[in-house]
């Protein structure tokens, strides 16, 4: 349950970042072209690719720098390697890629004795409980 709640918090953060990006792009377009203030026409595939890249960056940077995303921090979860440290940039990128490409991989938890998701198996990481110290 805590993974789902953390994912919801992270989805809200990414949605806010996407909205801010759209607002900034609209402001740039308005400054260059003049009125009206509106989003530039962007094909649907470009929005999907842009969103996927944003999610990859968000997850990779979060896991590399502190070992958790803001949603995981709030719920006391942390991604670590076998030695208990946050994953390095490559391992975090691999984990993020699996999360984006195979989001249903988290269902593997239901069958795993060690409660590992597919992204944990591929990246050789573990999600541990680490309550915030605030």
Automatic annotation (TrEMBL):
It is found in: Cell membrane. The keyword Acyltransferase does not apply. Its main location: membrane. The lineage of its organism: Bacteria, Bacillati, Actinomycetota, Actinomycetes, Jiangellales. Pfam families: RDD. This is RDD family protein. It is a multi-pass membrane protein. Keywords: Cell membrane, Membrane, Transmembrane, Transmembrane helix. The keyword Membrane applies. One of its GO terms (cellular component) is plasma membrane. It comes from the Bacteria. The chain crosses the membrane at residues 43-66, 92-111. PANTHER family: PROLINE-RICH ANTIGEN HOMOLOG (PTHR36115:SF6), PROLINE-RICH ANTIGEN HOMOLOG-RELATED (PTHR36115). Residues 1-123 form the RDD domain.
């Amino acid at each position: 349950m805590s993974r789902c709640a953390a994912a919801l918090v992270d989805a809200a953060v990414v949605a806010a970042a996407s909205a801010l990006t759209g607002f900034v792009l609209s402001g740039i377009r308005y400054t260059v072209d003049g009125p009206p203030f509106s989003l530039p026409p962007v094909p649907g595939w470009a929005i999907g690719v842009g969103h996927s890249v944003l999610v990859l960056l968000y997850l990779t940077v979060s896991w590399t720098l502190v070992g958790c995303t803001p949603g995981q921090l709030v719920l006391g979860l942390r991604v670590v390697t076998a030695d208990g440290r946050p994953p390095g940039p490559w391992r975090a990128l691999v984990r993020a890629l699996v999360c984006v490409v195979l989001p249903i991989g988290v269902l593997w938890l239901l069958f795993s004795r060690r409660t590992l998701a597919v992204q944990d198996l591929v990246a050789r990481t573990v999600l541990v409980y680490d309550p915030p110290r605030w």
